[in-house]
Amino acid sequence: MTLRDRLRADTRPAHDRVDAAFSGLGVTERRGYRAFLAAHLVALSALRPAPGPGDAALAAEMADLRSRLRADLQQLGANGSMPPLPGRRCLDPRALGYVLHGSRMGMAVLHRRWRAAGDARLRRAGAFLSTPPAPARWGAICAGLSRMSPDGPTADRVIAEAGTVFAIYEHSALSQARPLKGCPDAQRLAPAQH
């Protein structure tokens, strides 16, 4: 067993909760899509990579995603500067990269649903969902985690901090979903390829 195997197993319940939380946010109608984008922006605004392997590249990728989210929200007439969750968390870049890049790999299904939407304005707000998934980066993250022991304080910290990332996303999605109860476009978030 490697750290990647343990991450997949130990964070599965948290991952499932995030999927369930995002299932109330749709991508084919404006209200749901605005909530989906806002949930991602709020979560990404609360996260920063701590110094460590790949931190600078991950920080740049996250800044790009936040910029794309703001542009999409502005395109939809929403306030692109959503308030961040209380307190910013600096987390191990391996934990953060695992969750973020895993979810990027899983966005293909949502991208197809969004592209099929009949609303032209909604389709113009596609910077975030059109972000390339970066399979080489995901592969490097997985390879690095596969070389690490699943035991010990470093492994325990990476697992705990990946759980924190999932929890922040879950909280953000649930906060955005509350006003949408009964929204007809509740699409299930595509599972990440962990």
Features of the shown structure:
194 residues, mainly alpha, Heme Oxygenase, Chain A, two-stranded parallel ribbon, 9 helices, globular, disordered C terminus, Haem_Oase-like_multi-hlx
The CATH class label is Mainly Alpha
- The DSSP helix count reads 9
Radius of gyration using CA atoms only:
16 Å
What's the end-to-end separation, in Å?
A: 15 Å
Report strand %: under 5%
The number of distinct structural domains comes to: 1
Helix content: 55-70%
Q: Which fold name fills CATH's third level, the topology?
A: Heme Oxygenase, Chain A
Largest sheet: 2 strands, parallel
Q: Write the CATH homologous superfamily.
A: Heme oxygenase-like
Helix-strand pattern: HHHEHEHHHHH
Overall body shape: globular
User: pLDDT under 50 segments (min length 5)?
Assistant: 183-194
Protein name: Biliverdin-producing heme oxygenase
InterPro entries: Haem_Oase-like_multi-hlx
Organism: Jannaschia ovalis
